[in-house]
Amino acid sequence: MAPVNRRILISGAGIAGPSLAHLLVRYGFEPTIVERAAVFRDDGYMIDVWGTGYDIIERYGLLNAALARSYLFDRLKFVDERGHELSGLGGAVLRAALNGRFFSIPRGDLALAIYETISDRVEVLFGTSIRTVEQETSGVEVEFSTGARRSFDLLIGADGLHSRVRELVFGEEPSFQRSLGYVAASFIADVYPHRDESTYVSFARPGRQISRYAMREGRSAFLLVFAEAGEPQIVTHDAASQKTYLLSKFGSDGWEVPEILERLETAPDVYFDTVSQIRMPGWTQVRTALIGDAAYSPSLLAGAGAAFAMLGAYVLAEELHAADGDFIRAFPAYEYRLRPFMLRQQDAAIRFAGSFTPRSEVGLFLRDRAVNLMNVPGIGTWLARRMLGEAFRFSGNCRQ
Fold it and tell me: What does the DSSP assignment read for 2-14?
């Protein structure tokens, strides 16, 4: 029997939206994706895949495609101003803790692997955003930025931390955003003279950290994180001003920082945002549901946002399929299955943020000691498993 409520509008063509569309098509629904960007964006920072992330990519049937685009970082090291190693960790520890189910991949490459599965099967409206939403008994009436109006049975917000759907249906962002007290930026340089292949290299001072890793085709990627006293403020969304702001934070640091900041000034694209969580009392309202960062962002520093976006899409699609499209049954089931797990991940992310970029010399010293301790056989595996957290349990009420 064909499901009811088949016409589903998904806002966002990042990872969460195409992941949901991938499954909805399989189950006989008719998804449409609307995306603010003019073209599909395959940029983004490096993400690590383990635990739930590895499991969910495997369940989507995308593991081989992801592995073909992956990197295997074999060492993590923290250095001083002269580039001498203060602490380091071999990849063997992580592989042992995760039974070899671990790799890294640029976010854009993972997004593209997902998008390629639906690009010729799903209507995608690029360069378009949602202007208004009206939820009726019989469906959802949407007006697009183009002025066009269309009706759908359901609306799914998969449009990230600064979700437009969340704003229109659930309320303004400050009601749900919880800052973790940091700001993050990332960019890629085509040419950089220092390369430590298969190694993630970081230099830190109290309250700030800059990291680099080598990519294919001679490129290098950089991640800058710094603490802000009180509530972090992004004073502008202008790229030039953001670069100036970063220069003011890192401009006095040693090591390779001056060379990195030179590349920052000429970088065409820079990601820049507060490190925040989204915490909501509910992820669904009438005929609208949120998934991924729009609903439960754990923060960029948690390193698992992409995995949780795919997981949310998976659980929601499974419940819509099981309910034959009856959202009155499917939406509560989606929240019931996923909310306890995501709350635990968000709590863990808050604890992790301080250890990622310690705010004091003592904190940096303790982090270096902890990293070196992880090289001790047995202890390292135990600590790594505790740090990497739990995996989502797919058994029981999971429907294949």
Answer: PPSS-EEEEE--S
Helix orientation angle between 107-115 and 16-26, rounded to the nearest 10 degrees: 20
Which tens digits make up the pLDDT trace of 335-363? 999 999 999 999 888 887 777 889 999 99
Alpha-carbon distance 153 to 138, whole Å? 7
Cα dist from 154 to 161, 309, 322, 333, whole Å: 21, 19, 16, 16
For residue 90, give the nearest of 71, 72, 75 by alpha carbon.
Answer: 75
- Confirm if 114 and 22 have CB atoms less than 8 A apart: yes
Burial of 231 (0-12, 13-18, 19+ CB in 10 A): exposed
Q: Which two tokens stand for residue 161?
A: 């931390």
> Mind listing the pLDDT tens digit for each residue in 44-81?
788 889 889 999 999 999 999 999 999 988 899 999 99
pTM attached to this predicted model:
0.92
DSSP code of 71? B
219 φ, ψ to 5°?
A: -85, 160
Q: How far apart are CA 291 and CA 339, in angstroms?
A: 11
DSSP, residue by residue, 22-52 = HHHHHTT-EEEEEESSSS------EEEEEHH
CA proximity to 330, closest of 281, 390, 272, 289: 289
Q: What residue ranges define each of the domains in the chain, with the CATH number in brackets? A: 7-72+103-175+277-361+377-388 (3.50.50.60)
- Other Cβ atoms within 10 Å of 393 Cβ, number: 12
